[in-house]
Amino acid sequence: MPRPLRGVNRSYGFRIDQILLRGNQIRLRIYHDVFGFVSGPAETDMTATGFSQPVQSATERRLLFLLYGRANTNKL
């Protein structure tokens, strides 16, 4: 995934696409989107899990910016 927090050098994001099979047929598809950033001495992670389809990008982005804002307001 592209850098989720523009302007934040130490941020990352990646997706794990998990397929659950029953026999040889797809039973369920699970998406785990993991985002993180470093703020001071702390590393903060956020995971969004979607079933059958990924969580909407706009929702992930809004929550990640909220989390980043709170981490910078309450630095260790």
Describe this structure in words.
By secondary structure, this protein is α+β, with helices and mostly antiparallel strands. The chain has one domain. It is built from 1 helix and 3 strands; from the N terminus they run E-E-E-H. The chain has one helix at 57-73, and strands at residues 11-22, 25-39, 42-51. The longest helix is centred in the last third of the chain and has 17 residues, at 57-73. The model has no long low-confidence stretch (mean pLDDT 89).
Proportion in helices: 10-25%
Major pleated sheet = 3 strands, antiparallel
The geometry reads as: elongated
Order of helices and strands: EEEH
- Count of strand segments: 3
How big a fraction of the residues is strand?
Answer: over 45%
Instruction: Calculate the terminal CA-CA distance, rounded to whole Å.
Output: 28 Å
Structural class: alpha+beta
Q: Please give the count of helices.
A: 1
Report the average pLDDT across residues: 89
Low-pLDDT segments, ≥5 res: none
Computed over alpha carbons, the radius of gyration is 15 Å
- In total, the number of domains comes to 1
Largest beta sheet: what is the strand line-up? 1-2-3
